[in-house]
Amino acid sequence: MAADAGGGGGGGGGCSVYVGNISYETSWQDLKDHMRQAGNVDKADVLESADGRSKGCGIVQYQRPQDAARAIRELQNTELNGRPIFVREDREQGGGYRGGRGGYRGGGGYRGGGGGGGGGGDGCQLYVGNLSYDTTWRELKDHFRQCGEVERADVKRGFGTVRFTNAEDAQSAIESLNGVELQGRELEVRIDEKQY
After folding, report:
1. What is the 8-class DSSP label of residue 132?
2. SS in 3 state form for 18-34?
C-alpha cells in the first residue's frame, strides 16, 4: 500500500534536498555527479537569478527518500568545486518559490522606536556578522530562506539582521549557516540580543 507515499504534511515523500553554498561555476551536471554518491539522482537544478546567473544553491531530486536522507547525513560539508556545501531537506517541494512578499520599502527598520514591551526575547531575530560589504539585503534574505520563512532582512556595513517568522527556523539557521560562506566570507550567525 506504498506506506511512505506522500509522507506527512508537505513532505512530498522527502526525495528532494536543498544544496547551499555551491560555487557560481558549478553546473547542474557537477552537482548531480557529486550528489550521486548518496543514491540515484532523478534531476539536479542549479537555481538561477533572472539574468541567468547561479544563485549559489540548487535542488537535487533523488529516486528514493532514503537516498535524500543519506545525502543530508553524508554529504553535509563535503567539498564541491572547492566549497563546503550544506545539504538539507527541501522545504518548498512542489510549491515552487512563493514570490517574495511584496516590496521592502526602506522604512526605518531597527532604529530605536520605543521598547514596545521589550519584545526582543522571542528568539526569531538573528545577528549576522562578517558580511561582505557587497551583500545586499535581498541576497541575505535569499541565503537564509532555505531555513524557513524570513520576515525581513537588513544589511548595514559588514553585518546584518534576519528576522524569521518563528524561532525554530531561526535556531535551524544558526545550526546550518553559522560558519558557512556567503560571497567568500564565513558568516557569524547568532540570536540578536540587541533587538530594539
Report:
1. -
2. EEECCCCCCCHHHHHHH
Q: What are phi and psi of 137, to 5 degrees?
A: -60, -35
Kindly report, residue by residue over 24-68, the tens digit of the pLDDT: 889 999 999 999 999 999 999 998 877 888 888 899 999 999 999
Please say whether the beta carbons of 17 and 62 come within 8 A: yes
CA trace torsion 164, 169, 174, 176 (10° rounding): -130
Diameter over CA atoms, the chain: 58
Q: Where are the alpha helices (DSSP H) in 62-123?
A: 65-74
Q: How many residues can be counted in the chain?
A: 196
Contact criterion met (CB below 8 Å) for 142 and 152? no
Neighbours of 65 (CB within 10 A): 19
Sequence letter at residue 50: A
Q: Which three cell numbers stand for residue 93?
A: 517541494
Q: pTM, whole model, 2 decimals?
A: 0.46
Are the beta carbons of 84 and 78 closer than 8 angstroms? yes
* Strand duo 188-191 + 125-129: pairing: antiparallel
For helices 137-144 and 167-177, what crossing angle results, to 10°? 100
